[in-house]
Design a protein that fits this description.
Elements (H helix, E strand, L loop, with lengths): L1 H46 L15 E8 L2 E7 L50 H5 L1 E8 L5 E4 L5 E2 L19 E7 L4 E6 L6 E3 L6
Antiparallel strand pairs: 1-2, 1-4, 3-6, 4-5, 6-7, 7-8
Length: about 210
Amino acid sequence: MIEVVMVMIVLAILASFAIPRMERDLKQEAADNVLSAIRYTQHLAQMDDKHKFDNPKWQQRFWRIYFGTCDDGKFYVIGSDDNMDSANNGRVDFNESALDPANGKHIWAHDGGSCEGNHQLSELSPNIFLGKKYGVTNIAESGGCGLSYLGFDHLGRPYSSAFTDSNESDNKGYMTSQCKLVFTLSDGSSFQINIEPETGYAYISDELGS
């Protein structure tokens, strides 16, 4: 009987450590997901030069990541408005979105209403749905982030507001100060991603080595 009681006590102690750890892991997984997505966007920009200096809309072709909201909550999209016909809303079409290297599915969702829009939900990467997967309820921007769009040029330099105007001037939207993105989860916890100007280096704010 004493042995059974001792086993129950040990299990209770282990459970007290495991439950908070699971909560921290959920936030950490969300932070790692977003950080990887931002770095993947920068990688695509460096590997696929989208510059067309003879077109006034050339910056709309930047590879960019942006955040939106659909029926399943917050999500992100990675893509390039390759044909520059986004009607000045900064969005990209389904066929202009990047593919998730983890599953080969589109990193795209429809902003507002049905997440899949005119496509099949099975065509979309489940990793992009921050609200459904991690409980992210809010995304706040400050510093060098002027809009919900973060793009990169062929050198990996960050731009934050150069995707909505029909006539772009040289280097318009070039990020000159640190961008801060704060993600809040349904349990009230939050994490912050910082993106440095010039280099575009992104990291989790309390994990400088991330």
